Amino acid sequence: MLKLYKNLKARDYLLGLKDTSDEVAFRQRPPFPEQLTFLLQHFKITKYRLEKDTHLSEKTVNRWHNGKTQPSVESLLRLAKYFQCSVDFLLGRV
């Protein structure tokens, strides 16, 4: 079975000889403010409408939009339900 793995780096990782695989390439995830802006534009929603519909304060939404703070887990769940998407999508993981 090891003959199938001609790439020595991958084989060493699979055998536990190395801690990390050199072949794993992670894509850069967009920051939360970019995801929030994308969703607002996609659904044609203003920040004001988001604040009113989700019962979030203007200050909170502005801080997220400016990248000064990150949303709490509770807020992420509320936003995911509002935009009908996953929390992973909000965080740019998919």
In short:
The protein is mainly alpha-helical and 94 residues long. Helix content is 52%, strand content 0%.
Explained architecture:
With 94 residues, this protein is mainly α. It folds into two domains: 1-26, no CATH class; 32-90, lambda repressor-like DNA-binding domains (434 Repressor (Amino-terminal Domain), Orthogonal Bundle). The protein is 52% helix and 0% strand. The protein has six helices and no strands. The longest helix is centred in the middle third of the chain and has 11 residues, at 32-42. The radius of gyration is 20 Å and the shape is elongated. The two termini are 33 Å apart.
Features:
94 residues, mainly alpha, 434 Repressor (Amino-terminal Domain), 6 helices
Name the helicity range.
Answer: 40-55%
Mean pLDDT: 84
Question: What ranges have pLDDT less than 50 throughout 5 or more consecutive residues?
Answer: none
Highest CATH level, the class of the largest domain: Mainly Alpha
| The number of domains | 2
Shape, principal axes of CA atoms: elongated
* Order of secondary-structure elements: HHHHHH
Give the N-terminus to C-terminus distance in angstroms. Answer: 33 Å
Which class best fits the helix and strand makeup? mainly alpha
The strand count comes to 0
CATH topology of the largest domain: 434 Repressor (Amino-terminal Domain)
Number of helices: 6
How would you characterize the largest beta sheet? none
User: What is the radius of gyration?
Assistant: 20 Å
